[in-house]
Design brief:
The chain has a 3-stranded antiparallel β-sheet, with helices on one face. The protein is 41% helix and 17% strand. The chain folds into 2 domains: 1-46, no CATH class; 47-77, no CATH class. The chain is α+β, with helices and mostly antiparallel strands and 104 residues long.
Length: 104
């Protein structure tokens, strides 16, 4: 039995907490689809509306600054570099279908 069969709506990946690489989950369904969370139960948990509005306001005011700093960290931090290598295998690659009968 695989972990994916136990956890519906989330696939296991590696993420960063501080400067450490830890196990996290990417939500594949629910209101947080596409988001990386610490626990798979979070994917279907109800949203906190007050926290959402506060975060939207913060992102509007500090979005550019946070973006520049996070991009710098992703390029230079050893933990981020390790994370990139670890998650490559978990991504699905799309391959072109082979055509039958074509002579190329």
């Amino acid at each position: 039995m695989f972990v994916r069969e136990i956890i519906e709506g989330a696939t296991p990946i590696f993420g960063k907490t501080g400067n450490k690489v830890v196990r996290k989950y990417r939500c594949t369904s629910g209101s947080r689809k596409g988001r990386i969370v610490a626990k798979p139960g979070t994917c279907t948990a109800p949203k906190n509306v007050k926290a959402m509005t506060t975060m939207k306001k913060t992102r509007r005011s500090k979005g550019a600054t946070v973006s520049i700093k996070s991009n710098r960290t992703k390029r230079t931090s050893p933990a981020s570099q390790k994370l990139k290598r670890l998650n490559v295998g978990s991504r699905r690659t799309l391959r072109p279908r082979k055509r039958r009968g074509s002579k190329r």
